[in-house]
Structures are given as structure tokens and as C-alpha cells.
Amino acid sequence: MNGLGDMMKQLQGMQSQMQENMEKMQEELSRLEINGSAGAGLVTVTMNGRHDVKSVSIDQSLMTEDKEMLEDLLAAAVNDCVRKVEAENKSRMGNLAGGMQMPPGFKMPF
């Protein structure tokens, strides 16, 4: 019976450590800045690792273009940034899990 109690204590310790690591990673992701762009860099978007948009930059030369084109470039830059954030999050989550393979389509809980 003592073996089961020891195993439960060990599992609780692992859970606590995993929770601490997850909290630390969430803090790091909130400080992380990732850039996405479109139109050869004429539109750039900066997000943190939690998908919060921190800044948007639109080159002055685009101010004479039509509204639809500017909207398309902005959407493309945001999508580029989101893909980069997802890749970074997946990489960091893999490191947190000690190389354990995450299920396909796994999303961070934030």
C-alpha cells in the first residue's frame, strides 16, 4: 500500500511542476513579440504569443490605394502573424512536454 501512496505523491509533485511550468510559459508568451507581414513588408503586424495584436504598421505608400486592397493586405499580415505565433506556441509546448508528441490540432488553452 505504501507504494501506491508514494506513487500518488510523485504524481502530485509532477502535476505541480507541470502547472508551474505552464504558468511560466504563459508569462513568457505574453512578453513574446512576433511579426507577420504582407505586401513585401508594406503591412506588418506584431502580436504576442497570446495572439494579442500589439501594433500594426502600414507603409505610407499604401495610403493612396483602394480600401479593399488595404484590407486584404492587413488580413494577410494578421494571418501570417497568427501562423507564426501558432508555430512558436507548438514548439514551446513541445519543449514543456519534454518532447512528448502533442495530438494533431492541439491548441494552447488561451
Give a topology summary.
Blueprint: H1 2-31, E1 34-38, E2 43-47, E3 53-58, H2 67-96
Antiparallel strand pairs: 1-2, 2-3
Helix pairs in contact: 1-2
What report would you give on this structure?
- This protein is an alpha+beta fold and about 110 residues long.
- It contains two helices and three strands.
- It has a three-stranded antiparallel beta sheet with strand order 1-2-3.
- A hairpin with a 5-residue loop joins strand 2 (about 45) and strand 3.
- The longest helix has 30 residues, at about 1-30.
- The mean pLDDT is about 85.
* Backbone structural class: alpha+beta
What is the succession of H and E elements?
Answer: HEEEH
Range of strand content? 5-15%
Reported for the largest beta sheet, the result is:
3 strands, antiparallel
The percent of residues in helical segments reads 40-55%
Uncertain residue segments: none
Q: How far from one another are the termini? A: 39 Å
* Sheet with the most strands: spatial strand order: 1-2-3
Per DSSP, the total helix count is 2
Averaged pLDDT, please?
86
Q: Specify the overall morphology.
A: rod-shaped
What is the CA-atom radius of gyration, in angstroms?
A: 20 Å
How many runs of DSSP E, i.e. beta strands?
3
